[in-house]
Amino acid sequence: MTTTPVRPPTAAGLAVELTDLTRVYGSVKALDGLTLHLAPGELVALLGPSGCGKTTALRILAGLDQPTSGRVEVGGKDLTRVPANKRDMGMVFQAYSLFPHLTVLENVAFGLKLRGKDAGARRKVAQEKLELVGLSEHGSRYASQLSGGQQQRVALARALAIEPSVLLLDEPLSALDAKVRVQLRDEIRRVQIEVGTTTLFVTHDQEEALAVADRVGVMNAGRLEQLAPPAELYSAPATKFVGEFVGLSNRLPATVQGGTASVLGRDVPALDGSTSGPGFALVRPEAVSVVADADGGATVTAVMFLGPLSRVTCLLADGTDVVAQLASSDALRLQPGQAVRLEVEPSPVLVVAG
Amino acid sequence: MRHGAGFRVVRAVLLGLFALYFFLPLISMANFSVQGKGPLEGEITFHYYAELVRNEDLRSAIVSSLLLAAFTVLLMVVLLVPTMIWVRLRTPGLSRTVEFLCLLPLTVPPLVIVVGITNVYTWVNYLLGDSPQVLVFAYVVLVLPYSYRSIDSALSAIDVTTLAEAARSLGAGWTTVITRIVMPNIVSGVLGAAFIAIALVLGEYVFASLLHYDTMPVALAAIYKSETSTAIAGAFASIVLISLLLLGLSFFNRSKAPDVGGQKA
């Protein structure tokens, strides 16, 4: 498992250490020994299906929930039993959370008021943060007069106004439509790099996680399956769950011997964690190439045009479906029913037991 | 949506009938209360309204009822609002129990409650004196179901949990969360509860009469036997006052209710 941060620490950020966190609700173990380190200024995304424990981890870090066991440290200080309002963390929620009776400016200044800042200082900082998220003209409006995307921007400005030790983002984009989601996703990343606050971003959207994070942690059943930079997570999944959850994978029959996997008649390196002997190789569609060959042993069953790329589905003689992702210029030369030969790239693959 | 002429006629007739049903007794009361009797026979007079203030027993009963209404509202708000917010935020599992307890007084006839609490009130009188203001304890129970409903609707209209968590993450303690975040967003519900409580207390007769306290309805009932016009003037004045309160509430709700929806993204 990779744990090395890929960005250098920043002055504004503090290190976060979650150690062996467990959270049990009745008979359900929401977190099962989660250990996670965030370097100062780093943005880590926690990714996983519903109920995997990612939000529980974030809420425990925020102080909105208490761990059954384990330890939470920020900047070397033990915060495990410190209440949420004493933790100095900014949070953006999945649900719209602006205070309806306050204007945008008053919302952003709320945390500063609680910290005893005078009116002038509050106004100045709030205005700065609104400029940071591109809403400086909307200070006098109420939440009900803003779109969903604008409300989440204001929530981000409000969270940043208190200069938090850690920024927590709990699926802040999931209530927004696709276009706004992409815009705001990029904006969150820009702002996070600009302010340098250590950030934990929880999402179930893998594209979102891979796009914004320095490292992505994939969670399953309360445990961290893998924590790695996005490219590594995609190209070298550590477990069967990660290989199948992140991106699209073909399960191709393979045999592993001495660190080498034989897939579709070709020898490729087997990743650490691969099973030995017969199993299934998890091969990305873009690692499969399709060559017209009357004796190739495979048949094209469908060609799906996706713009610059296309997906070609083929059927092997043993009944296995294989999806290949090709440049559309190559894919459109293929016809359903055509005999082809499939080849895999010589990149490492994870081989899992059936 | 456009409606046909037939629909408009039916609507006008129905509205007219309802207006007649509601306003005819009020108009009759108003008319009766300004018609001079005895030496004032044949005159239109506000003598009986003046009498409401001049009659010392009635005046003190009105003051008692107004004070009772104010204390009932105060105690209800102090007890109920923080409890309901706390249950929503910290012990949502108890919400059914709290709802059941708050609605329970609706199912018990006031007469039964009075019989049940008579002995309790012997002790209350012994400890706190026999001022009508001690009725406040019984009246808080009486108004509980209506107040609960009004505050509960206001709380349901906002995402209390998320707002509270957002405020907590920004550094707010629980008192700040309740007073500066939740309360301002449920003002209309609390006002609704308050006005309903005032209306109930100003019209409550059974508790006060059977427990022997002189409140406005008890005094009006007593006067009705000897000075009918003054009693009708008092009843009409209290109806107008309560109507104005409720009318004010509906206007306040319309202009101040927080819109928590937001536009689409």
From TrEMBL, chain A:
InterPro entries named among the record's database cross-references: AAA+_ATPase, ABC_SmlMolc_Importer, ABC_transporter-like_ATP-bd, ABC_transporter-like_CS, Mo/tungstate-bd_C_term_dom, P-loop_NTPase, Transp-assoc_OB_typ2
Pfam families (alphabetical): ABC_tran (PF00005), TOBE_2 (PF08402)
Record GO cellular component, one term: ATP-binding cassette (ABC) transporter complex
PROSITE patterns: ABC_TRANSPORTER_1 (PS00211), ABC_TRANSPORTER_2 (PS50893)
Domain ABC transporter: 16-246
UniProt keyword list: ATP-binding, Nucleotide-binding, Transport
Single GO molecular function: ATP hydrolysis activity
Superkingdom of origin: Bacteria
EC number: 7.6.2.9
SMART domains from the UniProt entry: AAA
Residues spanning the membrane: none
Top EC class for this record: translocase
ATP-binding among keywords: yes
PANTHER family reported for this sequence: SPERMIDINE/PUTRESCINE IMPORT ATP-BINDING PROTEIN POTA, SPERMIDINE_PUTRESCINE IMPORT ATP-BINDING PROTEIN POTA
Protein's name in the database: ABC-type quaternary amine transporter
Classification of source organism: Bacteria, Bacillati, Actinomycetota, Actinomycetes, Propionibacteriales
TrEMBL record, chain B:
An example Gene Ontology biological process: transmembrane transport
A GO cellular-component term linked to this record: plasma membrane
Name of the protein described by the UniProt record: ABC transporter permease subunit
Record lineage: Bacteria, Bacillati, Actinomycetota, Actinomycetes, Propionibacteriales
Membrane association type: Multi-pass membrane protein
Superkingdom to which the source organism belongs: Bacteria
A Pfam family recorded for this sequence: BPD_transp_1
CDD domains: TM_PBP2
Record family assignment: Belongs to the binding-protein-dependent transport system permease family.
Organism: Nocardioides glacieisoli
